[in-house]
Amino acid sequence: MVGSSSSVARTVEPQLEDALATWLPGQRWFGAKGSTVSAVRIVARDVLADEPHFAAEHLLVEVQLTQDGAAVTQTYQVPLGFRTELTDDLRPWVLPVTGEVAVFDGLRDPEIIGLYGDALAVGNATGSIEFKIVDGSSVPSGLRGRVLGAEQSNTSVILGDLLLLKLFRQVPPGISPDVELHRALAEAGSVNVAPLRGWLEAEVGGEPTTLGMAQDFAANSAEGWTAALASVQEVFDSPQTPIEDLPADFAPDARRIGAAVAQVHHDLASVLGTAERSVESTAVEEILARISGVARVVPEIAEYIPAATALISRAEASNSTTVQRIHGDLHLGQVLGTPERWLLIDFEGEPAKTLAERRQMDSALRDVAGMLRSFDYAANHLLVDLPEDSSARERAEKWAARSIAAFFDGYASVAGHDPREEADLLRAYELDKAVYEVLYEARNRPTWLSLPMRAVARLVS
């Protein structure tokens, strides 16, 4: 192990790596669902607090696992808390250790969250972790913290209702696109992201690596996914009312989201540049290889390979397309509506891709395709348990079509061009996303598999 442990943690030290191996696969943010964990090794350890009955440590752990028949090693950061007396709200987050000391997810403890805020306020190193502040910014000390919402590939906490601190759970060596793109958008003066205030770094695999970032907290905001679901529910609850007459009609918001996405694309291009690339080299040819790979897990998708081949051929006939830095994992859960505007969040890119892949230029159509798939999911996921309700499905499809049209209109109003003009290439990117969703649902939510499968059938028809 690298680094010394806190005094209260030493009684559970012999159990800790085995306990992590048992506990990690059950966490929402664990990036290797369905894989077999063979061992966990603690490679870095920083003590944030060390008191007789309480301690906080920040761990970096290497997880050795078998994924699709291959041996893989992934690095995760795991803030841990140690208490001799555990409050009820922390009990769901404990690790399987025995003894008088309870070990738990540190980001569920407001006192431990506050330690990260205080370290960021000082803006220097704590052990192996460097806390960096954006030039001209400051972070107040003494902010109490609380965890925010559901976890994805990261954990976000709120500090004093002023800052959002996001810690990336899986940490491949290198600088995160989230920090890199937020800094570029700040240079462009973008109003469609929350300003970056600082970030955390440590050395992983010999490289400076982003552990987390802090930005202004968008108070009084609503997540796009939540707002869309509320709108769809109203569509189902009012089957006789035209969608455009419903109070929760989502089309106006969809238009504003489209405009925000186009503005962020423009701002990124203005700072980081663009390039022209042949469609053949934009990776659309990889879609067929992806379908073949997914077919090993979901055999029924193989029947769509001939039609997908025809679609890819039409897309490649587009000859060339403009590429730039993009969001990379855009969907309704990655946009926040505030009273003033819509914001884009979480620019770290698709978690399944390598860091190098996430930092590559790509067509802005990939982000647009991600939004189209998200509108489809929002419209139809409530019908998973009602597959034969044709009336509800028709209403869902009308909602999706109306919202998507509004999104396109908003995008075109800012970009000066309409993504619908590149229909074949856009459809190829949408197919790529749907195929990814097929694999995800097969591994994580088999009851939802019909959603992306229906989309694949529609896209190649």
Short synopsis of the structure:
The protein is α+β, with helices and mostly antiparallel strands and about 450 residues long. The protein is about 40% helix and about 25% strand.
SSE map:
Blueprint: H1 13-23, E1 36-51, E2 54-67, E3 70-83, E4 102-105, H2 110-122, E5 125-126, E6 129-133, E7 145-147, E8 154-159, E9 163-168, H3 177-188, E10 196-204, E11 207-216, E12 222-223, H4 224-237, H5 251-272, E13 274-278, H6 286-295, H7 305-316, E14 320-324, E15 335-337, E16 342-344, H8 355-358, H9 365-380, H10 390-415, H11 423-444, H12 450-460
Antiparallel strand pairs: 1-2, 2-3, 3-4, 5-6, 6-10, 7-8, 8-9, 9-11, 10-11, 12-15, 13-14, 15-16
Describe this structure in words.
The chain has twelve helices and 16 strands. With 461 residues, it is α+β, with helices and mostly antiparallel strands. A hairpin with a 2-residue loop joins strand 1 and strand 2 (54-67). Helix 4 packs parallel to helix 9, helix 9 (365-380) runs antiparallel to helix 10 (390-415) and helix 11 (423-444) runs antiparallel to helix 12. The termini are far apart.
